[in-house]
Design brief:
Elements lengths: L21 E9 L6 H24 L20 H7 L1 H4 L10 E15 L5 E15 L5 E15 L2 E13 L4
Parallel strand pairs: 1-2
Antiparallel strand pairs: 2-3, 3-4, 4-5
């Protein structure tokens, strides 16, 4: 009698990397009254967390890629920016390149935040300038350079800061 066949081993998942977004410059633009520095810093930290979520979902965490659909990415966008983000998915994420990659190794993730303070002395909006560099890693030894720059306008929505407008420029595969 022949021995039962052993099950084929499951493919091992690719390496797992974590994204840490470095909050670089924080400043404030006030119409009349300035706010306390700790309030501006709290807004900047919340914006940093939002940007970490955006770039984690769109680039770094393979379990959120969902075959190139990136559904968790859209929770960070509100208003007209959400349907626009669905149309701009290729520019806001790995897009179709996700199907060729197993992991993304972050190399640089930096955000500068400018907090806009209204006439009542409360933060109304924030502008985040994000720089992201990484290397996409494929099973076949592929190394794909990833460069992404974005400028995002955020507003406080439901206790967090969400994107209401953006302008992004990305490059996959070019070392320049």
């Amino acid at each position: 009698p022949t021995a039962p066949a052993s099950p084929s081993p499951a493919p091992s998942p690719g390496p797992r990397y974590f994204l840490i977004v470095d909050l670089r410059r924080v400043d404030e633009v006030a119409v009349t009254n300035r706010v306390k520095e700790r309030e501006v810093r709290a807004v900047a930290q919340s914006v940093r967390e939002t940007m970490a979520g955006v770039y984690g979902a769109g680039f770094v965490y393979p379990d959120q890629w969902q075959g190139g659909r990136f559904p968790s990415l859209f929770q960070y966008f509100v208003g007209q920016a959400r349907p626009q983000a669905r149309r701009d998915l290729q520019d806001l994420s790995l897009g179709r390149a996700a199907n060729r990659l197993e992991a993304v190794r972050p190399e640089r993730a930096r955000v500068n935040v400018r907090v806009m303070v209204g006439p009542t002395g409360h933060p109304l909006a924030a502008v985040a300038g994000m720089e992201f560099r990484a290397t996409g890693l494929g099973a076949d030894g592929l190394e794909l350079p990833i460069r992404h720059l974005g400028r995002y306008v955020l507003r406080r929505v439901g206790g967090g800061w969400r994107i209401v407008a953006y302008d992004v420029r990305g490059r996959l595969g070019s070392r320049r």
